[in-house]
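Before relying on records like the one below, remember that each one covers exactly one chain. Contacts with other chains, cofactors or solvent are not represented anywhere in the record.
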Amino acid sequence: MSVVLGLTGGIGSGKSTVLAMLAEFGIETVSADEINAGLLAKDEDVRREIAEAFGEDTVTNDGINKQKLAAIVFNDDGGRKKLESITLPRIISEMRRRIADFRSEKESEALVVEVPLLFECHLEKDFDKILSVVTEQRTRIDRLKNKRKMTEEDILARISKQIAPETQMAMSDYVIVNDGDPESLRRKVTALRDVLSRLSKQSGKSAN
């Protein structure tokens, strides 16, 4: 039997890095952020609704003016909820379609789905197991400053809108603490890969 793992974590925790490492190991992956990016770039209905809600200048010929849109929604709870009402139902629908396809095909032992708002959207039942990636806040801030060139004010504003790491840990089956160097993280992800392999084999025996 195949196992579907939900992967979550706050901004700057390194969950996308974990997902990329798992993909390198040959595990099938899905990213809610990538689904969202595809919607913003290609879905005309999404772009039209965003333009109507936030102004024509938030939409460009190439897709979405992400900087302008982010400046609006992360400083306004009402704006953030409005954007989520446009994108989240579509993201969740596509995510569930891919999970259903994976379960029906059963060609791989595991599927890992990265969902930043997994707990906030109450998606726990979509997954067999849940993994949270957590990182000390100062480390998250420094990473985002260096990699995304975000200001500390913007980072803290986004962190404040997300579920606390302690809550994520309590609600998860597995936790990776990503406070070390890349090699330390790779060792933890390797161990996770082995866990997924064992879970798949155990599920297969239970089904027989």
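The chain is about 60% helix and 15% strand.
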